[in-house]
Each structure stands twice: as structure tokens, then as C-alpha cells.
């Protein structure tokens, strides 16, 4: 039960962040390692800056 609550809480937090426009860095890093192993993993600051630019400058959002 405790594990289920922790998992549900984690998903709820991730959903709330996505609704507010704050993407999940850990999910992004996993995506990069799984689908784009040749790309370097950016720091959190670089990731956040790039996501903010993409959101507010209208340069798109997804790579694939």
C-alpha cells in the first residue's frame, strides 16, 4: 500500500508540473539515454532554459 501511495503521489506531482509547463528532467534524461544515446545529457539549468525558450518563443516542444 505504501509503495502504491508513493507511486500515485509521484505521478500526481509529475502531472501537476506538466500542467504548469514544468517538464520532468528525470523523464527527459531517461528518454535521451533510451532513444538518443549519442546526445549529451544537459544540466538541469540548461534543460530548464531550453524548455522555457521552447515554450515562450514557440519553437516547438517534442523531438519525436
Number of domains: 1
Major sheet: none
- Overall residue-averaged pLDDT value: 85
Anisotropy-based shape: globular
Estimate the strand proportion: under 5%
- Total DSSP helices: 3
Task: Write down the oligomeric state.
Answer: single chain
Low-confidence segments, given as residue ranges, are none
Q: Count all strands and give the number.
A: 0
Ends: how far apart? 36 Å
> SSE order in H/E notation?
HHH
Residues in helices, as a percent range = 55-70%
InterPro entries: Sel_put (IPR007423)
Q: Could you characterize the architecture of this molecule?
A:
This protein is mainly alpha-helical. The chain has one domain (2-57). It has helices at 2-19, 25-35, 44-57. It starts with a helix and ends in a 7-residue tail after the last helix.
How is this fold's topology laid out?
Layout: H1 2-19, H2 25-35, H3 44-57
